[in-house]
Structures are given as C-alpha cells and as structure tokens.
Amino acid sequence: MAVIFLSFALILGLLTILGRRIGTMLFPAETRELSTAIGALLAVACFSISGTAVYYLTSVNTFTLGTTAIATIGGILFATRSRSISKTAQRAVSTTPISHTLSLLFIAIISLAAWWQAILSTPITDAVRSPWLVLSPISIIAPAVAFVASFAMLHRGAKLLGSLALFATLFSIFASATVLFPLGYGFDPFLHRATIAHIAEHGTITPKPLYYIGEYAIELFGNILGGIPIAVIDAFLVPLIAALTLTVTARRLPTGIAILLIALSNFTTTTPQSLAYLFTILTIISVPKFIQRYRDLLAPLIFAAAALITHPIAGVPACFFVAFCATRLWDVSLMKTIARSLLAIGAALALPIMFATQAIISHAPISFSFDNLWKLNELPLTGFLLSHGNTWLDALYLVVGNLSTIILILAIIGIILLRKAGTPSPNDNGILMIALLISFAIVSLGIDFSYLIDYERQDFALRLLLLATLFALPIADETLRVIIDRAGCSSRSRSAVAFVALFMVSAAAVYGLYPRHDGYVRSAAFNVSQADFDTVYAIHQREAEDADYIVLSNQATAAAALQEFGFRKYYHTDIFYYPIPTGGTLYQSYLSMVDTAPTKETVLAAMNLAGVSKAYFVVSDYWWKSDAIIENAKQQTDDWFAVDGGKTTVCIFTNEANAR
Question: If you average pLDDT over residues 357-367, what whole number do you get?
Fold first, then answer.
C-alpha cells in the first residue's frame, strides 16, 4: 500500500510540474491553479498518445514504455522551454467576508464526510437492482449540499477554495461506485481490465483493436512503470480525471452549473468511452473564445487526438470540432463557406458511415431505410413530465428524466438570445450539436443493427445524443447566465431561487448516478455479486486447466470469469467460452434459454458451434421466473448443483458427439 501511495505521489508531482509549464505557455490568461490543471490534463493526453504509438509500433514492456515516458517528458520540457509568456491572471479577490467563505467550506466538508460515512458503511456484495435499495436515497442530500456550497464559493470570489470543494464533491460521487461495489461494477470495466492485464503480461493482444488504446496506454504506464495494480488504476482513473475535468469546465464557463446537466453516470467507472467523453469536453472548453493563431488550437488538437485513439465515437466529432474552429482563422470567402458546409455534412454523416462500415467489415447483417428517417416518434427518447404522487421524486425525475432535453433546449434558447443581443455565439458548438442530432436520428431510425440485442442498438444511438449535449454545454451555460442576470427580482430573491434550483439539480444529478428501481423506473441491471465469483470458481474447479467447455450465463457471471481467469479459452478464434453481450452467439443462446424456454437442443447447438462436448448453464435466482427455468432445465440436464444456497443454479449438459 505504501508503494502505491508513493507511486501516486510521484505521478501527481510529475503531472503538476509538466502541467505548470504547459499551462503557463498555452493558457497565460488563466490563474495559476487553473492553467496548471489544464496543463496536467494535457500531459495525460500526451502520455495517452505516445503510449498508443508504442502499442502499435512495438511490444509493450518496461523498456519501451520507459523510453517513451522519458521521450514524452523531454518533449514537453523542450516544447515549453520558452518562458517569454509567463504571467498568469491574478486570482480573483473574494468579495465575501472570510467568515462566510469558511462557513461554506465547513458545510462542504461536513456534507462530504456524511456522504462517505454512508458509502463506507454499506458495501454491496449481493446482487441488487439498484444501490438505492441498500443505500438510503436521503443520503443524496449530503453531496447536493456540498455542490451548493462549492458553487457559492466559486461565484462569490473564493475561486481556489470553491474549486477544491467542487473537485472533492465530484470525485466523491464518481468514486462512490468503487467503494459501494468492492467486487466491481458494470460489465465493460471487467472486459477492459482483462485486456489491459493481458497486454501487460504478453506485450500485446491479438487481434489488435483499432481503438481503446488511449485508455489502455495510461493504465499501462501506471502499472508497468509505476507499479500500481491495474485494478487500482482502473478504479480511480476516470473518477479522478472526470472530477478535474468538470471542475476546470465549471471555471471556464460563465456559471459552470450546466456541468450538472450532463449524464454524470458515465464517469463512475473507467471505460474507453467515458475517458473519450472527457477528452471531448476538454477539446470543447480549451478552445479560446477568440482564436488569433493556429497555436491557439494546439491544446484542443491534442485532446481531440487523445479522444480519437481512445474511442472514435467521441473522437471523430472532436476532430471535426477542431477543424471547424480552424476555419475561424480563414478570411471571409467562398472557400471558407464551402469548407464549413462540407465539414457540417461530414460531421453529420461520419459516425453513421463508420457504424455501417464496421458492420460490413465484420460481415454482420445491416440494412438502411430512408422511409424510417421521418418516423421521429420512434426515436429512443425518454422523458418524465407526469406526477406520480411523490413530490420529492417527481422533482428529482423532472431533472434526471429530462437531462438531454433540458440542456438541448437551453442551447437552442441560448443561440436565439445571443443572436438577438448581438453577442458572439459559439457557432461551432451549435453546428456540431445539430450535426450529432442528425447522426442520432440516422443511427436510430435509418440503420437496422438487427445482429445486436435490443438495448445495444439503442446504446449506439444514445451515445450520439450524449455527445450532442456535450457540444451544447457552453451555449446552455451561457443561457443560464443570461436567465439569472435578467431575472426580474431582487438580488437576495434571485440568490435564494438559484440556490434552491441548484440544490434540486445537484440532488437529481447524484440520484441519476446509478440504476434506479423506485416505481418510476424499474431497473433490470444487477451488479456482479459474490455468488457470481463463487459460481465461476465452482465450475473452474470441476474441470482440468485445459478442458474444453462453454458456459451459458448472464453478463455478471461472465464478468467475474473475465476478472478471475482472463481470456482463458477461445474457440474458432472468436467464440469466448463465456458469453460476452456484444451480439455474440453464445449470449443469444443464453437469452433463448432464459427468455423463452430452456431446451437441450439450444445448448447442443451452442456446443456444436464451439465444438465442445460440455456446457454449463447458469441461472441466477433474481432472473424473471427463475424457479420455472431451473425446474425445466433440471429435467433435461445430465447433472446440476447449486451455489451459495441457491443464489445460482448450474446445470451441466454433455454432447458425446463432440468429445475429442
């Protein structure tokens, strides 16, 4: 543990030094702490890019990563050697009495202490639909109060203390998943951790993915050079970067309050997609309001490149955004108009074309229909406008159930208000927002991803909607500033209304972090439990190390197998012995067993597909009609056993025709 803390301290010190030099050069108009924070994030992006180059060009090991780290640090020091621009903005002087500032800071500290006390006292190791069934929803009051206190300090001149409080609050809610779920949370993090561990052990992985490496590179630097376990890096990487990114964003925006309208649930676990979202936000907020030279776009370009190599769904729009910003330097001419028009069309079509191309390369069935593009009522949009008789939850869901709608409406209003006021508006943000909304409609309605399971089809499209809200963020925040400034009431009344509204938005943001099962929303997601780990070990111990078999299970059990045994066995190069729910055939076989009726024929077909003679069928007791499924499977199986008192039941099937 001491080694981990020492490594973390050294890494933090290095990033602070590099961030100070980068921030001084690229963001001289910002205060020292803010420019250093942005510079440190730029340094992280640089390591992501250089680490990716190592992965694609050679084997990943201590020597190659060490050499690359030295080259990256040396390159940053060389590029920032000129200190001709070294004056940063003076820190704003607080207009609030020091006693008031200290009171707000004390409130934030006490609130966060109460939040952590609640989190630490309720670790979840059993399968639950929602952590709010274990952790009292009343606990969201604590971080909501901390948010209000943090923003109050920021807007009353205590920028440094307000930033620290906001960072601590954001990190506290993002890192809560790691503490609440000590066995792990979600499915994708398990898959990515297994991949990173494989690369760390073998130097590469086959086939080499064309993306994700932007995240993997950062974790490999920390693991191989810093000696920090992958599980530790993975647990805290995105929560840390997200807390710092959104704190910087709040400082760079007029009010910063709009950051609470982003779907913050994307930053509770470390995945390439979540990290790419953060690099995209940094691309957006690092663009100067007035671009005077191409050098002003160096920081956005680095962030966009990091987003692209981490996950192209976020990186492609980020790159288009930088290209749009570059055209601001062109003289007003026909060429500029043509270029911006082509960029707008490209931004709208790039991601749908990318999805379709990937499906074609993978030989997956895909089709396109122009007729469906006009059926806007079939867009996968969710919203909440009706009362369910609970004032508290009604108020929360009015926000958390309409996040995308709220931020997009604010952006549209902002574009209109700013144009009427003659204020320069961020046109590039508006264009990218509209382009991504068009992409969202095309992917949702025009492309038929019939080879994917239902929720995955929607997930692709909803990512584009989220990206649209990220580009709408600066405009929406400017709209909030205008609304607050133009409110026709006294300063005290305006502050009171703003604090109440901020408290409700903050509470909704925290409540929306996790799946909910409360009468308004019925969650179907269950976390990885101790029973899942016990099940995969029970199966593993029944077989020889090199035995051939498949397991039909839900994704929680498959996640446990990935963590404990990695990529142990593949059949025909692309069939993993546990189901991975990304349109794979084994997962479809599992769904056929639990959603319709378990039949031996379905299991035999799965075994024939993999070419194995044994299969295990796992049913968790929380599955819909699990008792009937289990009894039906027992009548057709060769043998069965229960785990953890029946929390999971495992049926064993054999097929002698495939015996080797």
Answer: 73
- Name the CA dihedral angle for 38, 44, 46, 47, rounded to a multiple of 10 degrees: 170
Amino acid at position 93, single letter: V
Beta-ladder partners of 576? 570
Angle between helices 159-174 and 32-57 (to 10 degrees): 40
- In Å, the largest CA–CA distance within the chain is 83
Q: How far separated are the first and last CA of the chain, in Å rounded?
A: 47
Q: What are the φ and ψ backbone dihedral angles of 642, each rounded to 5 degrees?
A: -105, 150
In this prediction, residue 486 carries a pLDDT of: 74
Tell me: the pLDDT tens digits for 590-617? Answer: 988 998 778 899 999 999 999 999 999 9
Domain extent listing, the chain? 99-174+491-520, 530-658
Per DSSP, the three-state class of 83 is: coil
Surface-to-core class of residue 524, CB atoms within 10 Å of its CB (0-12 exposed, 13-18 middle, 19+ buried): exposed
pLDDT score at 86: 47
pTM for this model (two decimals):
0.93
Q: Cα separation of 360 and 268, whole Å?
A: 33
Q: How far apart are CA 398 and CA 387, in angstroms?
A: 9
Which residues have a Cβ under 8 Å from the Cβ of 527 and sit 6 or more positions away?
Answer: 124, 127, 128, 131, 181, 183, 184, 185, 556
Tokens matching residue 539 = 């199966």
Closest C-alpha among 361, 269, 280 to residue 313: 280
Q: Which of 471, 478, 494 is nearest to 410 (CA)?
A: 478
Q: How many angstroms separate the CA atoms of 551 and 590, rounded?
A: 9
Q: Which residues of 465-500 are buried (b: 16+ CB within 10 A; e: fewer)?
A: bbbbbbbbbbbbbbbbbbebeeeeeeeeeeeeebee
What does residue 549 show for φ and ψ, rounded to 5 degrees? Answer: -165, 165
Which helix (DSSP H) or strand (DSSP E) does residue 652 occupy?
Answer: strand 648-654
d(CA 186, CA 193): 12
Q: Are 549 and 614 in contact (CB under 8 A)?
A: yes
In this structure, the dihedral spanned by the alpha carbons of residues 254, 259, 261 and 266, taken in order and rounded to 10 degrees, is 160
- 549-572 as b/e, with b when 16 or more CB fall inside 10 Å? bbbbbbbbbbbbbbbebeeebeee
- Which of 493, 511, 319, 314 lies closest to 396 in space, CA to CA? 511
Three-point CA angle 279, 37, 267, nearest 5°: 40
Residue 184 burial by Cβ neighbours in a 10 Å radius (0-12, 13-18, 19+): buried
Secondary structure string (H, E, C) spanning 407-435: HHHHHHHHHHHHHHHCCCCCHHHHHHHHH
Helix (H/G/I), strand (E/B), else coil: 615: strand
Beta pairing class for 614-620 and 550-552: parallel
Q: What length is written for the chain?
A: 660
Cα distance between residue 621 and residue 647, in whole Å: 5
Top-confidence range, 87-101, 440-454, 572-586 = 572-586
From the list 349, 422, 304, the residue with the least C-alpha distance to 45 is 304
At 526, give phi and psi (nearest 5°). -120, 140
pLDDT of 633 > 60? The answer is yes
For residue 83, the model assigns a pLDDT of 55
Residue 506 confidence class, pLDDT cut points 50, 70, 90: very high
Average pLDDT over residues 504-518: 92
What does the alpha-carbon distance between residue 155 and residue 333 come to, in Å, rounded to a whole number? 41
Could you give the angle at which helices 427-441 and 334-361 cross, rounded to 10 degrees? 30
The β-bridge relationship of strands 639-643 and 648-654 is antiparallel
**DSSP character for 267?**
G
